[in-house]
Structures are given as C-alpha cells and as structure tokens.
Design goal:
Blueprint (H helix, E strand, L loop, with lengths): L14 E5 L4 H12 L3 E6 L7 H7 L9 E5 L16 E4 L14 H19 L6 E7 L22 H20 L3 E6 L2 E2 L8 H10 L3 E5 L5 E2 L2 E2 H14 L5 E4 L5 E2 H12 L4 E5 L14 H7 L7 H26 L1
Parallel strand pairs: 1-2, 1-4, 2-3, 4-5, 5-6, 6-11, 7-10, 8-13
Antiparallel strand pairs: 9-12
Helix pairs in contact: 1-6, 3-4, 5-7, 7-9
Length: 336
C-alpha cells in the first residue's frame, strides 16, 4: 500500500484513544499513530455487521506494537470507567455503518451504536482535560446539497436515517463542547475507499464482481456524482485534526475531484484488466444524487489537502486485494 509521510507530526509520546480501531479507517489510523510514536488505546465492539475475522486481520500490524492495546467494549452499554485515564486525545470512529440498512426496523441499531454510543463517550470525556475529541461525521449530512463544491456552512439536509444519526452526533458534540468544554472536532468524510475497505462497500463489491466476470449492479443511471477519498488521505486529515483542529469546528475531508459512479466503475475495469458488465437496478432510497467537498477550511486551519488521485487509489486497492487473494490461495495450498 502507498503511504505518504506527514510533515512535522507532534504526536510522539501522546496517548490516543481510537474507537472503531479494528475497522477500515480505524486500523489504518492506529498504524499511522503508532508510526508517529504515539501510544494507541484501541476500542472496538466487534459487532457482526461484517465478519470479526476481517477486523482481526485489520489489526495484525498494530498488534505487533508494544504501544498498542486493544479493548473489546460496546460503547452503547459497556463499562467506560477508566477507559480515558491518562488519554491526551480521542478519535471516535465507531458507528453503525451503511445507508440502506438504516431504514425500517434497522434504525434502532443505528441509534444505539451511533447516537447513544457517542453520547456516552462524550459524557466520559467531560472534565478530562483532553486536547482534542475528534469524531467522524459524514458527507451524508448534506444530502443532495444546494451548492457544489459543498462547504461546511451549507445547510444539512440528510436524505437517510443514517445521515440523520451523523447529524445528531454533530449536534451532541456541539452541546458537549458548549456545556462541558469537551474540545470536539468533527470530520465529514466523503466516500472513503482503499485497502481494507469493508466488503459491503461499493468499490470492494465492484472489484470482486469485475474480477470474477460477473455483472456489476448499478442503481439508477450511474451518473450520480461522488467525491471519492483515499483512506491514507483521510488518515492524514484525521491526524492533522488531532494536532491542529479548532475545538467546536467541523471540517470536510474529501478527495476534491468528484466523478460519476459509472466512470469510476470503468476505471476499476481498466485497473483490473477485465471488461465491465453492468446490471441496471432501481435507484435506492437515501442516496444523494451528488457529493463534492470544498476543503478550503481544512487546508487553511489543518494544513491538509488530498494527495491521491482516484486512479492511484484504485491501483493501491487492487494491489492489496490481489495480495490478499494470493495469501488465501497459499493457505488453501498448505491445507491441502
């Protein structure tokens, strides 16, 4: 995987709590913090949204470090006493993922694992003297925005229950910042992809289907616009927020070059070296027609800009997937 260095990181010796540490973004972030000399307290509930074995594999490198400790805790009802002892900063990534599952009866799980979990962690953080409480929000809070690129001051108009839970976590963070002096810094991530991307996410599914010669399901016209952001850029922005984020502020972190979904799928086909077969499906509920980030504020206050092109990121994700497939074949061969 391609990794680009951070200039002048000051995290050495800090003790940083990372929730959702075994996830896609959390595992990359944990490794980066450890590489910068920080001590990482990882928390993950290992929910059954996708296989726990994948999450354990995500943490393989982090767990080689003496400065990494992992705690299996359900933030919605687990014991948080002592969890934030001697912690300098928190990065809260844990949440219930996925837009489509947030409709219907599934919404209760989103309220529990996103809203309630965040409120309990904010309560535990109050009075701790933290330097930063960085939390992950989402471009989903904008819905289909009025302006593109979309700046942070744009009205939030989520079009899914998932987006509503992310907007609610922002509101909770604002309340705890104002009333309990928790130094909250929000990050609105725009469509993150790259190595270790969850198996339910679009690019993971597209790579798998194209490689197998199967049809790729495209919902609607395929001309919906997305601002795809490579995971290492997201990690760099998150680290910059730990160091420089202004408490009470929310920042966009996006790739900066929105493209049509059908064009991204065509590019994946080029990277894989296989033709793309499309299966048209009805548009789903809760999907914005377009996303596009204005990251001027993050550039000015965090010193952050995305550095990976979509092509570079897709090539890195394909290389990782190929490596994983090769390792799986080797294991099968050893077992035979």
């Amino acid at each position: 995987m391609v990794v680009r260095s951070l200039p002048g990181s000051t995290l050495a010796g800090q003790r940083i709590l990372v929730t959702g540490a075994a996830g896609f973004i959390g595992s990359h972030l944990s490794e980066r913090l450890l590489a910068e000399g920080a001590e990482v307290v990882g928390v993950d509930g290992f929910t059954d949204f996708y296989p726990a074995a994948i999450k354990r594999a995500n943490l393989a490198l982090a767990r080689e470090h003496d400065a990494f400790a992992l705690h299996r805790i359900d933030l919605a009802d687990g014991d948080l006493d002592g969890l934030l002892d001697d912690v300098d900063a928190v990065v809260h990534l844990a949440a219930q993922a996925g837009v489509r599952g947030s409709f219907g009866e599934g919404f209760a799980m989103y309220v529990r694992n996103t809203v309630l979990a965040t409120q309990r962690l904010l309560e535990a953080a109050a009075g701790r003297g933290l330097e930063r409480f960085v939390y992950a929000s989402s471009s989903s809070v904008y819905g289909t925005a009025d302006r593109f690129p979309t700046a942070e001051g744009t009205d939030r108009r989520p079009v899914s229950p998932y987006g509503i839970t992310k907007a609610t976590t922002e509101d909770l963070a604002s309340v705890y910042h104002q009333t309990r002096a928790v130094p909250t810094v929000g990050l609105r991530y725009f469509t993150v992809y790259g190595p270790r991307q969850r198996p339910d996410m679009a690019f993971s599914r597209f790579f798998a289907r194209i490689a197998a010669g199967e049809k790729v399901p495209v919902y609607g016209t395929g001309r919906q616009i997305r601002d795809f952001t490579y995971v290492e850029d997201i990690v760099a922005g998150t680290v910059a927020a730990i160091e420089h984020g202004v408490p009470g502020r929310v920042y966009n972190l996006g790739g900066g070059t929105p493209v049509a979904l059908s064009d991204a799928i065509e590019m994946i086909g080029e990277v894989v070296g296989r033709p793309v077969l499309i299966e048209r499906r009805d548009p789903p509920m809760g999907e914005a027609a377009r996303t596009g980030s204005d990251c001027t504020l993050a550039a000015r206050e965090l010193g952050w800009r995305p550095t990976f092109t979509l092509r570079e990121g897709l090539e890195a994700q394909h290389a990782w997937l190929s490596e994983q497939a090769g390792a799986a074949r080797s294991q099968v061969g050893l077992a035979a």
